[in-house]
C-alpha cells in the first residue's frame, strides 16, 4: 500500500489581482515527486458553513494537474475584485484504477482580491466611450443637497465643502472606492434649455460654480468607472484633481488619464479670441459624476433653490450596486 501523503502546510498566497492569484505550499520531496494532482477548495469568506469541505477525501472544487509551485489560479472561478476568500488544498496521486490517494486538507488561508488594474479600467473606458453620445455645451458644475448640509458647511466647516471618502457604489473593483476623497459635482444639462435639470434626487438646494473653477489647464482629468443600476441609463465617474495635488498623485498610477481637450466625456477648450470664454462640453448620453479632490468654498459659487422636485430617490447612487448582468458596462473580469 502506498505511503500516505503529508498534509500541505505553510500555504502562501501571492501576486493577487482582481481575478487571479498564485498559491504555494510546503510538502516533502517524496510527495512532490509522486503527486499527480492538486485539489483546491475556494469559497467566499462570508460563507460561514462549517461543512464547507463536505467530502474530505475527494475533490470539491478544482482538480488541477500537479505543476511546479507556485501555481497560478485564474479562470476556474469568476473571482470578484476586493472580495475576501478562503482557500485550502490537498495533494493527490491518481491510482491505476482511477481513484485518488489524497492528503488531508491543509489549514484554511484567507486573502482578499485586488482592485481593477489599469488594463481592466481601459476595457471599461472603451465600453464607456461607445455610450457617451455627442458633446453638449455647459457653463456650471453643480451640487444638490438638503438645507441641513449647507447649514453644516457654513457653521462647522468655515463654508468649505470638504472632500469625503468615495463610497462603494458602481463597479466593485474601481480603485477609488473607499480610498479617494473628493466632492461630487454634476454637469449634465437638459436638451431643451442647456441648463442643469430642474429636478434632483439629492435635495432642494443647488450650489452652482462656474465650470472654469474646477475644469481648466491646471487640472488633471481621470476616468474612474462606468456602471448602471438595473436601468437603461449609465453613469460615468470622472476625477478632477489639481496638477501635483495628493489626489493627482493617487490617480496617476491607478486610473486612465484623459486629454482635457479631446475625450468623449468632459472637455475644456481655450478661448479662440481675446475676450472670449473657454468652451466646456459634457457627454449627452451618460450621467456624469465628477469627483473634485480638493475643498470647494461656497463663496466660489452660489446656493439657490431648485425649481423642480427633489424626491427622485431612484436616481440616487449612494452605495448602489452595479448590475452584474448588463452587457453594456461589464467587462470580462470580476464584477
TrEMBL record:
Keywords: Glycoprotein. One of its GO terms (cellular component) is cytoplasm. It holds the Pfam family PHYHIP_C. It comes from the Eukaryota. Residues 7-116 form the Fibronectin type-III domain. Coiled coil: none annotated. InterPro entries: FN3_dom (IPR003961), FN3_sf (IPR036116), Ig-like_fold (IPR013783), PHYHIP/PHYHIPL (IPR042868), PHYIP/PHIPL_C (IPR045545). Belongs to the PHYHIP family. Interacts with PHYH and ADGRB1. Its interaction with PHYH suggests a role in the development of the central system. This is Phytanoyl-CoA hydroxylase-interacting protein. It comes from Sparus aurata (Gilthead sea bream). The gene is PHYHIP.
Amino acid at each position: 500500500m502506498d505511503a500516505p501523503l503529508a498534509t500541505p502546510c505553510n500555504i502562501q498566497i501571492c501576486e493577487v489581482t482582481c481575478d487571479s492569484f498564485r498559491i504555494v505550499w510546503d510538502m516533502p520531496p517524496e510527495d512532490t515527486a509522486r503527486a499527480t494532482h492538486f485539489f483546491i477548495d475556494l469559497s467566499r469568506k462570508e460563507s460561514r458553513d462549517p461543512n464547507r469541505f463536505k467530502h474530505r477525501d475527494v475533490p470539491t472544487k478544482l482538480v488541477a494537474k500537479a505543476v511546479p509551485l507556485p501555481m497560478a489560479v485564474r479562470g476556474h472561478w469568476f473571482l470578484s475584485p476586493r472580495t475576501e476568500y478562503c482557500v485550502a488544498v490537498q495533494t493527490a496521486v491518481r491510482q491505476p484504477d482511477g481513484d485518488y490517494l489524497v492528503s488531508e486538507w491543509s489549514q484554511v488561508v484567507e486573502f482578499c482580491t485586488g482592485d481593477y488594474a489599469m488594463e481592466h479600467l481601459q476595457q471599461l473606458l472603451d465600453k464607456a466611450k461607445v455610450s457617451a453620445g455627442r458633446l453638449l455645451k455647459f457653463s456650471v458644475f453643480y451640487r444638490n443637497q438638503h438645507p441641513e448640509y449647507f447649514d453644516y458647511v457654513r457653521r462647522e466647516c468655515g463654508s468649505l465643502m470638504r472632500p469625503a471618502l468615495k463610497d462603494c457604489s458602481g463597479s466593485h473593483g474601481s480603485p477609488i472606492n473607499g480610498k479617494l476623497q473628493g466632492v461630487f459635482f454634476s454637469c449634465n444639462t437638459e436638451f431643451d434649455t442647456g441648463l442643469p435639470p430642474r429636478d434632483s434626487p439629492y435635495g432642494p438646494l443647488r450650489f452652482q460654480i462656474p465650470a472654469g473653477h474646477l475644469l481648466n489647464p491646471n487640472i488633471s482629468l481621470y476616468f474612474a468607472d462606468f456602471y448602471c443600476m438595473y436601468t437603461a441609463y449609465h453613469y460615468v465617474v470622472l476625477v478632477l484633481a489639481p496638477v501635483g495635488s495628493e489626489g493627482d498623485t493617487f490617480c496617476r498610477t491607478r486610473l486612465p488619464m484623459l486629454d482635457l481637450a479631446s475625450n468623449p466625456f468632459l472637455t475644456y477648450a481655450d478661448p479662440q479670441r481675446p475676450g472670449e470664454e473657454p468652451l466646456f462640453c459634457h457627454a449627452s448620453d451618460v450621467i456624469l459624476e465628477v469627483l473634485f479632490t480638493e475643498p470647494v468654498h461656497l463663496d466660489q459659487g452660489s446656493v439657490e433653490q431648485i425649481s423642480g422636485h427633489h424626491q427622485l430617490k431612484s436616481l440616487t447612487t449612494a452605495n448602489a450596486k452595479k448590475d452584474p448582468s448588463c452587457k453594456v458596462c461589464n467587462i470580462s473580469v470580476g464584477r
